[in-house]
């Protein structure tokens, strides 16, 4: 990892001026992932996520240039995050209180800066500041590099989920508790 790497936390209000840069990094990181990964859809995603109470962004800059970020938010009792989850799941798994689960929505690093420890630094910085009992994220099952990293970082596969939006892929649901353990079903491996 670079010695000049700087990590910074932002609220949604503080992050608003960064939206164009966040979209640029998203497009760069997903350059080869197909038409689903486009600026218009991602701007809508950010606009929908940023107003959630507790939304938090951590950015990584090197020599003043934004090279990556991670963001997420606590899941509210009326969350739609779990819509499309595939059974079986442990009893009560999708019940939320607003303080139970932190959802990591994106962890992105520009392609030119990948494999340098920046994603791990972003992950650890955000996760170390969270007080929820667990965290969750969704990852494409074909994203082997990400799956291997998440496994090393204490995440466990639980089940699959297909979001209820047009052309949504099926994702693997990963969780991580504050003590880095999670329930794992036999057919959902990381």
TrEMBL record:
PROSITE patterns documented for this protein: GNAT
Q: Name one Pfam family in it.
A: Acetyltransf_1
User: Taxonomically, which superkingdom?
Assistant: Bacteria
Give the matching InterPro entries.
Acyl_CoA_acyltransferase, GNAT_dom
Instruction: Quote the SUPFAM superfamilies the UniProt record gives.
Output: Acyl-CoA N-acyltransferases (Nat)
Residue ranges of every copy of the N-acetyltransferase domain listed in the record: 5-177
Instruction: State what protein this is by name.
Output: GNAT family N-acetyltransferase
Its source organism is: Micromonospora thermarum
């Amino acid at each position: 990892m670079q010695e000049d790497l700087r990590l910074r936390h932002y609220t949604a209000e503080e992050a608003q001026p960064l939206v164009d840069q966040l979209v640029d990094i998203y497009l760069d990181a997903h350059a080869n992932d197909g038409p689903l990964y486009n600026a218009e859809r991602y701007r809508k995603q950010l606009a929908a996520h940023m107003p959630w109470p507790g939304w938090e962004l951590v950015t990584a800059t090197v020599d003043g240039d934004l090279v990556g970020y991670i963001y997420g938010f606590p899941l509210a009792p009326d969350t739609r995050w779990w819509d499309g989850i595939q059974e079986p799941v442990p009893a009560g798994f999708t019940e939320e209180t607003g303080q139970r689960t932190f959802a990591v929505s994106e962890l992105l690093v520009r392609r030119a800066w990948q494999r340098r420890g920046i994603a791990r630094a972003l992950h650890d910085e955000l996760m170390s500041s969270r007080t929820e009992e667990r965290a969750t994220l969704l990852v494409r099952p074909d994203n082997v590099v990400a799956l291997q990293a998440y496994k090393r970082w204490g995440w466990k596969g639980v089940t699959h989920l297909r979001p209820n939006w047009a052309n949504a892929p099926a994702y693997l649901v990963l969780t991580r508790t504050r003590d880095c353990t999670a329930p794992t079903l036999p057919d959902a491996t990381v």
